[in-house]
Structure formats: C-alpha cells, structure tokens
Amino acid sequence: MYRVEDKYNCSETELYMLQARMEAVLRPDDNECGPEGYRIESLYFDDITDSCLHDTLDGVNRRNKYRIRIYNGSLDVIRLEVKSKKDNRILKRSKSISRAQMESLMRGECIEDSASLEDPATLFNLAVQTQGLRPKVIVAYERKAYVYGPGNVRITFDRNVRASSLVEAFGQKNISYDFLREYDKVLEVKYDEFIPDFLLQLLEPGNMQQSAYSKYQLCRENTEQ
Hints:
Blueprint: E1 3-9, H1 12-25, E2 27-28, E3 38-46, H2 51-58, E4 62-71, E5 74-86, E6 89-96, H3 99-106, H4 120-131, E7 134-148, E8 153-164, E9 178-179, E10 186-191, H5 197-202, E11 209-211, H6 215-223
Antiparallel strand pairs: 1-6, 1-10, 1-11, 2-7, 3-4, 3-7, 4-5, 5-6, 7-8, 8-9, 8-10
C-alpha cells in the first residue's frame, strides 16, 4: 500500500515542542534503544546518469530511491530498501540482507533475488544490470519515532542530518561526516488512509512549512560542493 508522507522543516524549538506532545500520548517506535532514540545510516545508490537525483530535483511524480540501511552503527541488522514515490504517497519495499550481500551490491554485483518485483533485491539487481546502479553517498542522522495503531501512523523527528562521500567505508566505525548547514532537522508524518483528528491538532505546525524535503538530494549536494 502507498502511504501518505508529509515532511516539514523545523527549528530545534519546534522539534522539541512537537516531540514533547507526542511523548505524552504515543508509544515510541520499537527500534528505540534509549531516550535519544536511535541512529540511522543509509547508503544511497544512483545510476550512471544520476537519475534518482535529477528526478528528485525535477519533482518527477513517480520515482525510486535505492538504499541500504543500518541502525546504531551495527551490521547485525541490514535492510535493503527501494522507496517508490507517487505524488505525495510512498511505497517502501524492504528486506534483511547479509553483510556479504551488502558488500556485493556495494561492488556493483547482483545478489540472490526472488524474481518478484515486490522483492527489493530484484529491483536492485535490475538497476545494477541495466542502469549501472552504484553507491553515491552515506546519509546519517538521529531519529525519535512514535507510532499510533489506527491509521498506521508513524511520526518521526530527525536531527543532525549529515553526509559522507566515503561510500566504501559504509558500516565501519568513525566515518567522517559533513553536517548540513541548514535543513538538518525534519518532521515526517506517515500514515495509510487517515490520521486521527487529535494528532492533527497536536501536530499543528505553526510557522513550519511543508516541504518536498529529500535527505538524499541535500546530502549529495553537500558532498559535491
């Protein structure tokens, strides 16, 4: 199912105020490992013509992003993901892969797949073979996330968005990152068909502006300045 995904650029004050409201009524995401939430590191891929980047810059209504994601610097859980966007709705195909499979994809090699277009490994392999898909940038940030069952609502607060061009070092410790000079804080609101009214009231954004925010785009631009 395609889900709604709305994004807002925030100040630190706005982020803490809204997070305090969510803390009072919603439960934390299962990935949380402490009061500060958890750290996400994603290795984003693009093809030889940077189609994913240009589609984002051009606001193409239907586009894909390809990434490998780990949590808190650990390779115990490695997620292979293809995120498809259609207007303001998102469909994420995700599965666990091994470290060996991750390293194969980083070298531009295919991995075992199910031959189903619902399998992100199949989509990765097709892009590797036909478009020359390769790693482009590492994106990292800290996340606090809250969930609410009705509507399958997920609200995330991301801070300290930063980038590294050292793609070959993904999964290693002590990677050097460049912090974004602005737009390093973002609120994301995701849900299926509806979001309860009481949450909309709690999320009253004030001066925040809804945005077509893309961590991948901003981090690519940051590392290539």
